[in-house]
């Protein structure tokens, strides 16, 4: 299967990418960045850096520097100013292609007979612009698996999750299409939890393996101190986990809407099970024991 990853790395995007890089069954054809966790130049540097760290060559295209309507809104409290706290990735910008991201999307979507699945782990600004500029691109998309949203409880506000909150207008554009989508929202991802002692027990010694362990350790300590959680939730890695191990999730089919109002409901996801359209698979839970088993097993591939 062909994949494009649209992301805003960001600590948990880096974790998702490091997990994906060791799932060789995934044919990743490109990475597109988007302003989100930290500004666009930093997320692009980090995406390229993961490739350098893991010795992979995948084209990276820089995407939107800002959401459709509102100003950029970052999450430096969780991710640090660089997006990955005190850690530093190597410079892998030889992977960068100097191309408009909409042209890059079109080239990748149309270069093969096979349709492409898009995994989005940041705000969906790029995708919204793509389908507006080139509606014909939609027929080349197998589905969009996106980490974002929450139908129960948000994190930026009581009602809204971060990626949705950054650019709800983009979500609205995509929800109004017939594209097949999978919502990997907080309702499911909040059930993933790596405890600090489990991370510290990981025996990872190669450069990328050790980087992952250090990143997980820093991230876990940071979210525990900022939010008082018992460990680290694996939000973005869950989107990749859904691709590799869909059996560990439960879900229901629905059509979705989102509030774009400038009030306390902004970016609240609205589930409509009565609609006949039902183009979205909404994840509702995951099995954390199975998640951890699969996640750690994959990370150990970095140590051979
Ligand atoms: Ca992200």
Structural write-up:
There is one protein chain. The chain has about 300 residues and is α/β, with parallel strands linked by helices. The chain has a single domain (about 1-304), classed as Inosine-uridine Nucleoside N-ribohydrolase, Chain A. It has twelve helices and nine strands. Strands 3-2-1-4-5-6-9-7-8 form a nine-stranded mixed β-sheet. Helix 5 (about 125-135) links the parallel strand 4 and strand 5 (about 140-145). Helix 1 (about 10-20) runs parallel beside helix 11 and helix 4 packs across helix 5. It is globular and about 50 Å long. The two termini are about 25 Å apart. The structure holds calcium ion (CA). Calcium ion binds next to helix 1.
CATH H-tier superfamily: Ribonucleoside hydrolase-like
The major sheet is characterized as: 9 strands, mixed
Mean pLDDT: 96
Our measurement of the CA-to-CA distance between the termini, rounded to an integer number of angstroms, reads: 24 Å
- Cα-based radius of gyration, to the nearest Å: 18 Å
CATH hierarchy, class: Alpha Beta
- Number of DSSP E strands: 9
Read across the widest sheet, the strand sequence of neighbours is 3-2-1-4-5-6-9-7-8
What is the approximate shape?
Answer: globular
Order of helices and strands: EHEHEHHEHEHHEHHHHEEEH
Structural class: alpha/beta
The number of helices is 12
Instruction: Determine the fraction of residues in helical runs and give it as a percent range.
Output: 25-40%
Topology:
Elements lengths: L1 E6 L3 H11 L5 E7 L6 H15 L5 E2 L14 H4 L21 H10 L5 E5 L4 H9 L7 E7 L14 H5 L1 H8 L5 E4 L1 H4 L6 H5 L6 H21 L7 H10 L4 E10 L10 E4 L7 E7 L1 H12 L5
Parallel strand pairs: 1-2, 1-4, 2-3, 4-5, 5-6, 6-9
Antiparallel strand pairs: 7-8, 7-9
The protein binds calcium ion.
Calcium ion binds next to helix 1.
């Amino acid at each position: 299967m062909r994949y494009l990853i649209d992301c805003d790395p960001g600590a948990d995007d880096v974790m998702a990418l490091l997990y994906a890089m060791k799932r060789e069954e995934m044919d990743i054809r490109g990475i597109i960045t988007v302003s989100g966790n930290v500004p666009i130049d930093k997320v692009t540097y980090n995406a390229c850096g993961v490739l350098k760290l893991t010795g992979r060559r995948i084209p990276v295209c820089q995407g939107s520097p800002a959401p459709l309507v509102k100003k950029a809104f970052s999450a430096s409290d969780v991710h640090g100013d660089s997006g990955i706290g005190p850690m530093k990735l190597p410079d892998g910008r030889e992977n960068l292609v100097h191309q408009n991201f909409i042209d890059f999307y079109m080239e990748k979507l149309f270069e093969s007979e096979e349709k492409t699945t898009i995994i989005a782990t940041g705000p969906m600004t790029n995708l919204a612009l793509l389908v507006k500029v080139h509606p014909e691109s939609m027929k080349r998309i197998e589905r969009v698996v996106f980490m974002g949203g929450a139908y129960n409880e948000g994190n930026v506000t009581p009602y809204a999750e971060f990626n949705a909150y950054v650019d709800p207008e983009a979500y609205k554009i995509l929800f109004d299409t017939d594209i097949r989508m999978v919502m990997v929202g907080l309702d499911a991802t909040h059930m993933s939890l790596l405890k600090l002692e489990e991370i510290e027990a990981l025996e990872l010694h190669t450069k990328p393996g050790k980087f992952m362990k250090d990143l997980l350790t820093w991230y876990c300590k940071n979210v525990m101190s900022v939010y008082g959680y018992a460990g680290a939730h694996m939000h973005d890695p869950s989107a990749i986990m859904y691709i590799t191990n869909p059996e560990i999730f439960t879900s229901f089919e629905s059509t979705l809407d989102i509030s774009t109002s400038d009030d306390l409901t902004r970016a609240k996801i609205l589930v409509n099970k009565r609609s006949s359209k039902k183009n979205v698979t909404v994840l509702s839970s995951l099995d954390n024991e199975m998640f951890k088993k699969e996640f750690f097993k994959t990370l150990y591939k970095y140590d051979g």
